[in-house]
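User: Let's play a game. I give you a shape written as tokens, and you guess the letters that built it. Ready? Here's round one.
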């Protein structure tokens, strides 16, 4: 009898672990299938209709409920809602999802960059915005998406930025020009900050036959 008393708790623990593993497996499947659909939309540069968009949101919300400690589903929920901004309610929801993801993974530079993007779209580009953007840069200076975000938002707020943020933007610009100068010049043009990017054009053989040589007077 005593052997059964010892064994039963062990059996119960194994059953619990099996249930947890199954829930996490389902959550992973839902999260990454949703991410794949979102990536296809991004590559095709399409804004999905509401019905498929809602289907992905439902899957990600279920994944988040199944694995509440996993920050990834929350991150993708934020990206999903941010893709439907400029409606402010979507940007607000995106920021909420990003912040909840940060609670579980505060060292993610991409999440910090996404929070900065959401705050910018909500018109909240005061002092906390700079702190968020600088944190993203400090945690992920070699990450392409972080470089893009720091440059894009830093250019947009250049005149109002602190010296610390301007220094970070300049560093991000130098790194991005080494990685992908054509894309970086397009961001600079769109934000009206060719004056900051043009000094990097001279001597870059990849830009020799581009319009940027003439635009920058090189």
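Assistant: Ready! My guess for every position:
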């Amino acid at each position: 009898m005593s052997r059964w008393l010892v064994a039963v708790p062990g059996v119960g623990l194994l059953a619990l672990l099996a249930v947890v593993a199954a829930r996490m497996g389902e959550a992973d499947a839902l999260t990454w299938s949703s991410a794949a659909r979102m990536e296809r939309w991004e590559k095709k540069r399409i804004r999905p209709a509401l019905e498929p968009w809602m289907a992905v949101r439902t899957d990600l919300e279920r994944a988040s409920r199944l694995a509440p400690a996993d920050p990834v589903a929350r991150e993708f929920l934020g990206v999903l809602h941010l893709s439907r901004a400029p409606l402010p309610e979507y940007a607000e929801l995106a920021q909420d999802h990003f912040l909840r993801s940060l609670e579980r993974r505060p060292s993610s530079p991409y999440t910090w960059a996404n929070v900065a993007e959401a705050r910018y779209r909500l018109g909240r580009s005061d002092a906390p915005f700079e702190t968020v953007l600088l944190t993203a840069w400090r945690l992920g200076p070699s990450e392409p998406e972080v470089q893009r975000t720091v440059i894009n938002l830093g250019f947009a707020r250049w005149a109002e930025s602190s010296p610390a943020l301007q220094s970070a933007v300049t560093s991000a610009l130098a790194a991005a020009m080494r990685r992908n100068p054509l894309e970086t010049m397009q961001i600079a043009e769109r934000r009206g900050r060719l004056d900051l990017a043009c000094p990097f054009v001279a001597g870059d053989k990849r830009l020799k036959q581009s319009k940027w040589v003439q635009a920058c007077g090189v």
